[in-house]
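Pilot study result, target chain (213 residues):
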Amino acid sequence: MSFLQSDAEVVLAYLEFRHRVVSLIREIPESQATLSVPLCPVWEVSSVISHMVGVPEDILAGRMEGVTTDAWTQAQVDRHEGESLSQLADALLATSVEFDVVLPHIPSPTNSQMVMDAVTHEHDLRHAIGRAGAQDSLAVNVALGWLLNMVEGKAPGLAQELLDSGVSHYELMRSLTGRRSVDQMKQIGVDGEQIKLLLQGTPLRVPMTAIEF
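Predicted structure:
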């Protein structure tokens, strides 16, 4: 059983994500560019946005060696070091000319994984600047679909159990991307210890202590 959304929905989810994030970036005061991002503790606000810009840039340039590793993402941050938030918003929008041609041809499930990463960092950014929103976006559902597929591959039956738990898609997504501590997951009715074990060996890590929201 697959929990993935259709390719058409994945494409639309990314287009909506980019429009939403470009608009959000343009609203952020430049003074907040250096704010720490609690859920990405080695990054500032500008770093997270640089990563968002860097993913489509690297796909277009064929720079996929080491994809998802810390070195790959840090190179994206380094490439845009010193750019203003306005410049970063322009850079993300500028990728659309070529990337929107490529986007429908990115194979499944890689396309859903890309959206999962993008929307995860959208909400990391929103948390850092205190601008919650878009928790019911199509991108959240696409991300959750990819994450549930991962869960199903490791613990058959658990994905449907999580879907049937009554926990919101947003909270499930944040739990499965390592944005909730074990105790926070327990508070919303998710087995945090089980999720922590499932995420071992992936780039997603459950925080040791609760992150205040």
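One observation from the pilot: The chain has a mean pLDDT of 96. A full batch analysis is planned for the follow-on phase.
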